[in-house]
């Protein structure tokens, strides 16, 4: 859940950054709305971590700052790429959550319920970004994003 929490920190920061540099107001609004929902996810994960007696990633300020800057830079590439980036991010998050749901102990129904709800929300974020004109990213960009999230996942798992 620490990794999921750190992921939500990143998602929120990315979309806040993207909102700052969005061109169209409609896109800015979509980014803000998504960021608000990521903040809900973040709070749910936080609460569950507290219940389980764990701690959040010590590197969260770093995840936040790095992600915000990446988000702002992505927004500068233009709305269709920024929306495409959001869609690809959510696509990868849905895959991650699905994989986590398959590994979580069956007895931990509270964590599963949180992850299921998050997965639904992330799928909806992806759909709304594509409906608003998001372009599919080139494969190398997707690969870089996967690599970065892999580094984040492995690091947040430990620290
Ligand atoms: Fe989320
Ligand atoms: Fe999302």
How does this structure look, described?
α1 (2-21) packs parallel to α3 (60-76) and α1 (2-21) packs antiparallel against α4 (79-103). This protein has a single domain (2-158), classed as Ferritin, core subunit, four-helix bundle (Ferritin, Up-down Bundle). The protein starts with a helix and ends with a helix. 36% of the residues are buried. The chain has 159 residues and is mainly α. The protein contains six helices and no strands. The radius of gyration is 15 Å and the shape is globular. The model has no long low-confidence stretch (mean pLDDT 95).
- Number of folding domains? 1
Please give the radius of gyration in angstroms.
Answer: 15 Å
Summed over residues and divided by their number, the pLDDT gives a mean of: 95
CATH class: Mainly Alpha
Low-confidence stretches: none
Distance between the termini: 13 Å
Q: What helical percentage do the residues reach?
A: over 70%
Q: What's the total number of strands?
A: 0
Q: What ligand species are in this complex?
A: fe (ii) ion
Structural class: mainly alpha
What's the quick description here?
This protein is mainly α and 159 residues long. The chain is 84% helix and 0% strand.
Per-chain topology:
Elements: H1 2-21, H2 25-52, H3 60-76, H4 79-103, H5 109-131, H6 139-158
Helix pairs in contact: 1-2, 1-3, 1-4, 1-6, 2-5, 3-4, 4-5
The structure holds fe (ii) ion (2 copies).
